[in-house]
Amino acid sequence: MLRCPYCKITISTRTDVCPLCHVRLTDVGNSKEDVKRTARAYPQRAKLPPLSGSLFDKVYLFAWLSLSLAMIIVEAIVTRHVRFSWISVTFLLYLYLLFRILLRGSEYFPQKVTVHALILTAAIYSLRSVLPEPEIIAEFLLPILYLVSTIAIAVFLIVNYKRPNRYLLNVLTVSLMCVIPFLALVILDDYKNFALSLATMILGLAVIIGTLIFRTKTILSELKRKFHL
Ligand SMILES: [Zn+2]
Question: Whole-angstrom Cα distance, residue 125 to residue 181?
């Protein structure tokens, strides 16, 4: 019989991770022998070859690659530099990642929001050479993105306040991201409008401090569960 000390349950069928919290069972007091001794409830899934995406992946990525190359080559020939092709190249890749990770992934809403914020950060940053004033990235675009993400997760947490432990690391991640735009503006020393990024940073820091004060224990156990510290 396998045991998960976090969820305080015993598990009667063979599995590597706890079905509830996904901690690796051999990391929390079950030996490999214990796992082997436990009966399987269903046959093991056949190993998939590493490049076996779905038909959607193959078609989309092939179309994306050929379209991108075509646009970049045409723009390079016509205008002698490549700038605006990046917009559609980035946007099409962003749509793909959005569909692949957010819509089809099975993670929870806060994780989706966090991943989405990271993807969109990369997409926005890759457009810096196209924007007429690149400083609006740190002045407006990223602060708005992080504000919306933090608020979305905060609302979700308030609705699911009984089980906050699953989402605390996501809260901390997005609130840390809130600090980045203002720091970037200060480091680059090139800003006109820092009000929004400053407000975002203050909100982020407030959330971090609040979470650390009220949920220290849960954060520590969550870190342990995620990274096996
Ligand atoms: Zn568990």
Answer: 11
